[in-house]
Amino acid sequence: MRRDSIFYKLFQQSPSLLFELLTNPPENAAEYIFDSVAVKEPKFEIDGVFLPPQTQNPGVVYFAEVQFQRDEKLYERVFAESSLYFYRNRHRFSDWQAVIIYPSRNIEQSDIYPHRTQLNGEQVHRVYLDELGDIRSLPVWVGLMVLTTLEENRATEEARYLLARNQQEVPQPENRAIIDLLTTIMVYKFEGKSQREVEEMLGITLQETRVYREISEAGEKRGREQGREVEARSLVLRLLSRRVGKLPQEVHQRVESLSLEQLENLGEALLDFTSMADLDAWLSGLDGNS
Question: Does the predicted TM-score (pTM) go above 0.70?
């Protein structure tokens, strides 16, 4: 399940969600912007950064890390990247904070002693989703985060509950965004199920959701590309037969295996072919460039 991308979609849709996990959120939490930033020399990117509004200068920058697999050097990386970015942009920020989100404590790296000062201080906040309480007692947005951690047999029941609460409590267009994100979570969680099965589980029609539209559009695009490839292969084979004669079986199979881009290139090149030797030379050139 691609949890990182789901959490970043949550943060993009509702940046203030991160601060609902903190005991002492900033007063202007609703004004923060979620973004990714790059640091040069050495070059690296930090995917989850909450930037204070430009009107607040200097402000406090928050770094967010979603970690669902054990990484024994997570804190080394997070603290190094955060400190370097803060150093490079010291004129913009008065302080930095880091929020590490785990599904549970057993995912956290085992050796935390070298980071005891930061982990036990006020700058680093560790959030364990399974300790936030009953999903039904949490705000809907936070409930979506917890939903990603649930086993399949319980996830369906809680997803339906969150959908019902969403309809009652959340105004449009935020209501629509929550439906899209919830269905995204469930489609990823139940990858082996058909569209109809996921629809029946949730009691909704997926055609109405953004995730289904994206999947459908991607499928249509793949279908169009596959259709172009079939047409190109058929045309190139016909033209080759006219130019150089009947193709030997192994050559025919080689042309059949070419990608769409290679078929298009061959379609241009064959206009200059006069014999089978020209085709053999062209195919050998592919081997030399691979």
Answer: no
